[in-house]
Write a structure and sequence with these properties.
alpha/beta, Multidrug-efflux Transporter Regulator, Chain: A, Domain 2, Methyltransferase, Methionine Synthase (B12-binding Domains), Chain A, domain 1, Rossmann fold, 4-stranded parallel sheet, two-stranded antiparallel ribbon, 13 helices, globular
Length: 312
Amino acid sequence: MAGAPGVVLTAGAVARQLGVAVPTLRSWDRRYGLGPSEHDPGRHRRYTVEDVARLRRMLALMGEGVPLAAAARVVLESRSDPEPARDGGGTGALAVGRVDRAVRGLARAATRLDVAAIRERVEERLVQRGALATWEELLMPLLGSIGESFERGADGIVEVEHAASAGILAALHGVRPAPEHGRLPALLACAPDEQHSLPLEALQAALAWRDCASRFLGARVPADVLIRSVDKLRPRNVVVWAHAARTARKVDLDAVGELCPSLLLCGPGWSGVRAAREHRSPGSLQETVNVVLESGPRLPELSQESKKARAH
């Protein structure tokens, strides 16, 4: 079907292809204008191959941790603005669009596969702006551009993605964890077979920046391991990331939900899982941080000196 000219699909068919619910597709159409473009008088609107491709690109961006609204904006801008991206990197550079100098510099380092330079630039921004702002202002634009390039099948993008992830992870791992006092505020885990762990790495750093402790079980956490970990630690919040519905469905939500007061389901994979509707699904890193912080005692804002120490 992919690439076939003139093919149109119903919302139900597209929902099955993408692993999301039909109401989710309607919400994306209503809120962001990413809906079916084919319309015949007297019939329901239909999705074209191009419509589905845009939705796939948006889901790929969300899988890299880009919030829904930002991912939709990137996809819409790529459709309506064919102007070459200003990346400052010359031939073979990663196209990052209209972004500030810091993002362009990070993109050039990623294009060169310079992991050390990527780490240095991210660490510098962490000291200057903190973990949350670093994710939203520096890393999201970069990861969004990598996702777009991956969808287009750009040459060498796999190497670029690995270098970027390695440098970013090294910088985030340099953020000093917050000490634990009393009940663990948050336990973070990727769904079974889910290898996209970078969003939760960023969440752990953002929580540490607010002096909020958390533990991260890592990628591809088996369902039984998650249940036993939650039972043992009894955290106030459990955050589970899933990029795809096939990995999200492997989580026993009932068992996990019975063991913790708050189960937060993050990532695009949950939109196609009916049982997930009974739990909260924060739409951004900022919202997830806020939910975790609001569930416990109010924490004072770190001083500038403490923030600098936390980043090293």
